[in-house]
Amino acid sequence: MRIDIGRCSITAVGLAVAITFALAAMAGPSAQAQTFNVIYSFAGHSSAMHPIGGVTVDQRGNLYGTTAWGGAFDGGTAYELRRTGSSFVFGVIHSFEGGTDGGFPWDAPTFGPNGTLYGTTGVGGTHGDGTVFNLQPPANICRSVSCPWNETTLYNFTRGSDGGNPQAGVIFDASGNIYGTNVNGGGGDVGVVYEMTPSHGSWTYQVLYTFTDGQDGAYPSSLLIFDPAGNLYGTTTSGGLPGCQGFGCGTVYKLTPSGSGWAEHTLYSFLDGTDGGAPSAGVLMDSSGNLYGATPGSNGNGGTVFELNPSGGNWTFNLAYDLSGGGPGPSQNLVRDAAGNLYGVSWGDGLYGQGNAFKLTPTESGWTYTSLHDFTGGSDGGNALGGLAMDSNGNLYGTTYMGGLASCGYCGVVFEITP
């Protein structure tokens, strides 16, 4: 199964990244002592296998995520890890057929205002170009974690002007509207940003912005964020200023409500130098309005973590840290704690070339790097493609695409890091 993302395939992101798991071992920063635990090792086709996205944590500490393959129809799954004391019980809550209900979910689901789960699939649906879906728990009390949830398809992408093949999940505004990105479709087949508005039990779909493959960028694959004023922020993996074989090395962009539409502002264009390039991860914002993000790699190194600071209507780029471990770095969003520390995962860096989890601590002279865990590709997992999630106690949760059970062919794990 393959999602065609056009020339975005040159950027070390996309499906080629997800299925490239033969990485050479390479030297990297030393890991620091942390409490690392594998919560669950995926068991294979009949259950679930190979998560690309991370997990979502609810208020009770339960975890929810998706896998790209496996399930009853091998079209991917949505799963729950229900907390029972100090342990978790795994259950598949939906098996995607890969047909009309969608298939190949790329990112973790999101809780909507009604307390149910919303997400996207990269393929499938009526036209084969992906869906937006909603999962609701069974109406009757279910005592088993494996009870299937009820799946409803909210929208079927056509890869026309509406876009198609979403790789990111969705977010909500205060009014309950859904926002997301499509890596394909639009006027030049280089992606769109969309909104879905609830209306009398259904949803009204509209495109907020169509990328042009110019300085605005191309192929948006990241999760969006809002600022307090209602502006949207995200990244593109291609486009922007010339570079990267003439296709552009990606951008950070802002969408501002303007009259009856939205105006696009390119905040930064990557050059694939020391700044990095081809960001598939989105950005996060602190209380001062600074943006933080990451790139998977530049000039053969392990990626970058960057900061964008607003000043007088302009944005200043600062390299927070060069993840020069030799392998691909973060492919999904960083997280930030109340003290301002940043956390992320790489999918090909670390001591063993199988990725690692890391922490960046702000100091007066810059950022201090700590490796929290170096994946070996064995029972602890390997190649962390999804981002991290943090619970209210500061515990970190994530997934790896590979590693885990040898009997499964190393189908990935869900892990916990306790500070």
Range of strand content: 35-45%
- The low-confidence parts are 1-32
Task: Characterize the biggest β-sheet.
Answer: 4 strands, antiparallel
Evaluate the radius of gyration.
20 Å
Number of helices: 1
Shape: globular
Number of strands: 28
Based on secondary structure, the structural category is mainly beta
Alpha carbon gap, first and last residue: 38 Å
Spell out the CATH superfamily of the domain at 62-350: Integrin alpha, N-terminal
Helix content: under 10%
The CATH architecture assignment of the domain at 62-350 turns out to be 7 Propeller
Order of helices and strands: HEEEEEEEEEEEEEEEEEEEEEEEEEEEE
Strand ordering within the main sheet: 1-28-27-26
Average pLDDT across residues? 90
Structural notes for this entry:
With 419 residues, the chain is an all-beta fold. It has a domain at 62-350: 7 Propeller (Methylamine Dehydrogenase, Chain H). The chain is built from one helix and 28 strands. It has a four-stranded antiparallel sheet, with no helix packed on it. A four-stranded antiparallel sheet has the order 2-3-4-5, with no helix packed on it. It is globular and about 55 Å long. Mean pLDDT is 90; it is low at 1-32.
Topology record:
Layout: H1 15-18, E1 35-41, E2 55-57, E3 63-67, E4 77-84, E5 87-95, E6 110-111, E7 117-121, E8 131-136, E9 150-156, E10 171-172, E11 178-182, E12 192-199, E13 202-210, E14 225-226, E15 232-236, E16 251-258, E17 261-269, E18 284-285, E19 291-295, E20 304-311, E21 314-322, E22 335-336, E23 342-346, E24 356-363, E25 366-374, E26 389-390, E27 396-400, E28 413-418
